[in-house]
Structures are given as C-alpha cells and as structure tokens.
Amino acid sequence: MAATLYVGNLPWSTTDTSLADAFREFGTVHSSRIITDKETGRSRGFGFVEVDDPDVEKMISGMNGKDFGGRQLVVNEAKPRQS
C-alpha cells in the first residue's frame, strides 16, 4: 500500500527526479511530481511524493524542516482529494 506526502516550500529549480532522490534516503519512493502553473509552466513551489506506507513517519520526521536548496521543507501526509 502506498501513501502520498505533500512537500511544500520547494526551490523553483526542483525537478521530479531531484525530489524523489531526496526522499529515497528514508525509504521506498514510487513516484514524485512537482505542481506547475498551467499558463507559465513554472513550479508552484510544492509537490507530492508517493511512498510505501511503512516509510511515511520515517520520511516525515527525516525531511520536514530539512534544508533543501536553501529552503526549509514542509512535509506532511497529503489529504485525499475530494470529488
């Protein structure tokens, strides 16, 4: 089973790959995506990382508040989308 983490305060230069690589230190990463502005294509400064359920707490405690490209990350478990 997988869980999704919200990652905020990302540097503008962050890519899907660099975001996933940063989290791999703490467990299994299935995917990552940076949210971009539809009109400009520029990063909106946040993204999501899909990880294994058993690794969630380890990743949050390891990455929340960590310096990443000169910015302190905000990491928490993503809330499910409401339809």
From TrEMBL:
Record flagged with keyword Cell membrane: no
Molecular-function annotations in GO: RNA binding
SUPFAM superfamilies: RNA-binding domain, RBD (SSF54928)
Organism: Anaerosporomusa subterranea
Residue ranges crossing the lipid bilayer per the database entry: none
The UniProt record lists the keyword RNA-binding: yes
Residue span, RRM domain: 3-80
Record-linked SMART domains: RRM
Protein name: RNA-binding protein
